[in-house]
Specification:
0% strand; mainly alpha; 95 residues; single chain
Length: 95
């Protein structure tokens, strides 16, 4: 069995980069299940510790403090970056 440990993005060969990307980032049901299990375990740990979510528990003593502050920060950042990404998209569409 072939095992790909990374996406080969630095290869000089475009075919190698494409195959590496497709194999490395393909849908993997086993990884999906592991991620679901991890998320459920984190949620259960947080609930046992008296938190509403793992995000609430993870943000204690962090610079953002609460999940809602993280969300507000990300929304603010997204709104500031949107014009730049739209400009880049428009340039790419003109190629």
């Amino acid at each position: 069995m072939l095992e790909i440990s990374h996406a080969y993005v630095f290869s000089d060969d475009p075919y190698v980069r494409e195959v590496g990307y497709r194999v490395f980032y393909r849908n993997n049901p086993q990884q999906e299940e592991l991620l679901r299990t991890l998320m459920e375990a984190r949620y259960n740990i947080a609930k046992c510790a008296g938190f509403e979510s793992f995000a609430e528990r993870a943000n204690i003593h962090s610079i953002c403090d609460t999940p809602s502050k993280v969300e507000n920060f990300l929304n603010h950042l997204s709104s500031k970056l949107l014009p730049f990404s739209e400009r880049d998209r428009d340039k790419l569409l003109q190629l």
